[in-house]
TrEMBL record:
It is found in: Cell inner membrane. Signal peptide: none annotated. The keyword DNA repair does not apply. This is ABC transporter ATP-binding protein. Keywords: ATP-binding, Nucleotide-binding, Transport. Its main location: membrane. It holds the Pfam family ABC_tran. The keyword ATP-binding applies. Residues 10-260 form the ABC transporter domain. Belongs to the ABC transporter superfamily. CDD domains: ABC_NikE_OppD_transporters.
């Protein structure tokens, strides 16, 4: 009998999200901010995929385009068997319960004039025909699940701490039994002392409810704790997508290497890698480089890197990298792949 690999719960192919730039009195379309420029990945049911990268690299835009909070410019986003990018408005509304988002700033995402019970039951009002009693029962169940005391059901968001407000946001996201949750920097706005509690709660809920997460964060230590695999983004594209331990112990892409060199190694038996300081600034996503998006700062770039964009491809079992240093990608420029690369400078 052949082993059958289950289809991923989330399959993203060639996702692009461009924001048009209009200038002048006539508001002429003069270009686009290429916030996400051809991103592909899959997430298995029950898995957590971490999405990391410097501020502005497109992490949040990927999360929002995935749930069609933005209209993607191009690409397919199949969630639980349906291409979200192609659904008509009513079909998309019916699909919404399956996929939810936990936002960075619980303060900003909760209506200050609504009680906790109203906030958590809002999706139930929209998507079910349950009566008030049944909705309140569900609110209590959800409050239990996220560790909020039922006595607080009639209080307002400002009466809670940041951590408790994030629990309210999580309860609301869970109200309709979603399968997939995009967690967009869910702990970034919280005190360090309570960040771990919220992450532990997300992990417990994942185990109990079989949830699948896209966990967006710039906190590499937290991603190392929670993610099964990690995608490293740079300027709208994925540079490397690898299993968590493989990535943290031996990053392959030069950008991933530089990014992770700043993380403190918790295991003292592992030799500390030298810190890699990258020169220059991240180019504007409105004018990305012609070649590899990282080519202008890459200490290992060679001629081909400045001429064409490498595609993300498997270079070791389970590890995908978009870099001409690995894998013989057939180029269109005729520039042969370099065997040696420039490795001067930037390492300190
Ligand atoms: N609505 C928008 N209109 C125009 N440009 C946008 C819009 N949203 C995001 N951008 C641009 O797209 C790029 C990616 O932004 P995004 O917020 O996705 O990055 P990020 O990696 O999540 O950053 P951060 O960690 O700071 O949230 C940035 O250059 C940003 O300025």
């Amino acid at each position: 009998m052949r082993d059958t690999v289950p289809a991923p719960l989330v399959q993203v192919d060639g996702l692009k999200m461009y924001f048009p730039i209009y200038t002048g009195i006539l508001r002429r379309h003069t270009g686009d901010v290429k916030a996400v420029d051809g991103v592909s990945f899959a997430i298995q049911a029950g898995e957590t995929l971490g999405l990391v990268g410097e501020s502005g690299c497109g992490k949040s835009t990927v999360g929002r385009a995935l749930l069609r909070l933005y209209e993607p410019t191009a690409g397919a986003v199949v969630i639980d068997g349906e291409d979200i990018a192609k659904l008509a408005p009513e079909a998309l509304r019916r699909k919404r319960p399956t996929m939810q988002m936990v936002f960075q700033d619980p303060q900003a995402s909760l209506n200050p004039r609504m009680t906790l019970a109203d906030i958590i039951s809002e999706p139930l009002v929209e998507h079910t025909d349950w009566n008030a009693d049944r909705r309140l029962q569900r609110v209590y169940e959800l409050m239990d699940a996220v560790g909020l005391n039922r006595r607080f059901a009639n209080r307002f968001p400002h009466e809670f701490s940041g951590g408790q407000r994030q629990r309210i946001g999580i309860a609301r996201a869970l109200a309709l039994n979603p399968k997939f949750i995009v967690c967009d920097e869910p702990i970034a706005a919280l005190d360090v002392s309570i960040q771990a509690q919220v992450v532990n709660l997300l992990e417990d809920l994942q185990e109990k409810l079989g949830l699948t997460y896209l966990f967006i964060s710039h906190d590499l230590s937290m991603v190392r704790h929670i993610a099964d695999r990690v995608a490293v983004m740079y300027l709208g594209r994925i540079a490397e997508l690898s299993p968590r331990d493989a990535l943290f112990s031996r990053p392959l892409h030069p950008y991933a290497e530089a990014l992770l060199s700043a993380v403190n190694e918790p295991d003292p038996s592992l030799a500390r890698r030298p810190r890699i300081i990258l020169k220059g600034d991240v180019p504007s996503p409105a004018r990305p480089p012609k070649g590899c998006n990282f080519s202008t700062r890459c200490p290992k770039a060679f001629a081909r890197c400045h001429a064409e964009k490498p595609e993300l491809q498997e270079v070791e079992p389970g590890r995908q990298v978009a870099c001409f240093l690995y894998a013989p990608q057939t180029g269109s420029t005729g520039i042969p792949e370099a065997k040696e690369h420039n490795q001067q400078g930037e390492y300190q």
